[in-house]
Amino acid sequence: VTAAAAIVDGLVAREALGPEEAIRLRALRGRALLRLGRPREALEEARRAVAVRPLDPRLRRVHAALLRATGDRGGAAAAEREARTTEARLAAIEPRYEALAHGTDLSAEFRALTEQRIELDPGFGRAYQMRAAIRLTDWNAAGALLDYARNSALDGSAAQEFLDYTKSFNRDRIVDPAQ
After folding, report:
1. What's the DSSP call for residue 14?
2. pLDDT tens digits for 112-144?
3. Cβ within 8 Å of residue 96, ≥6 positions away
4. Considering only CA atoms, which of 155, 88, 90, 82 is closest in space to residue 124?
């Protein structure tokens, strides 16, 4: 356990990982620390993960559980409230977002809902696919490709098909709308 912990510590300390990887490693490290009877250290890992993704209800709930385990009932209640608030915000936009996502409307409303969906749940891969389509219509090919890559990493969906398809394109033709 010590050698593995040292490797994780080194990667995180050097910022050698992306935010998503760091969150996963911190969550795993926190679970291991909790199982080893070190809840205060586990709580610190949860705090760091929440700092990267403050709106993630799953992380907030883990944070709340660790706050309870260390005796901070007030902090645990606040973390639970924050998780419920984010879940309520997601529930409020979800029906309209899904209705628009299954259509061909790229209206200002859909654009705003897509950004909100990503803000509230950055792990929802399909929202990146939707934002990529929007960015393509705005001739933002670089942004679209980044979002398709995010979608592919998080969800798979149609992103990989699109990325395979674009390999055959001439780079200048994708980026320059005048062509």
Report:
1. T
2. 999 999 888 887 888 888 898 889 888 988 888
3. 109, 113
4. 155
> How far does CA 61 lie from the centroid of its chain?
16
Residue 138 corresponds to which tokens in the numbers above?
A: 């705005």
CA distance 24 to 19: 9
How far apart CA 66 and CA 73 sit, in angstroms, is 10
CA–CA dist 70, 10 (Å, integer): 26
Length of the chain: 179
Three-state DSSP at 140 gives coil
SS3 sequence, 53-103? Answer: CCCCHHHHHHHHHHHHHCCCHHHHHHHHHHHHHHHHHHHHHHHHHHHHHCC
Print burial letters for 3-18: b (CB count within 10 Å at least 16), e (below 16).
eeeeebeeebeeeeee
What is the value of pTM for the model shown? 0.65
**Which helix or strand (DSSP H or E) is residue 156 part of?**
none
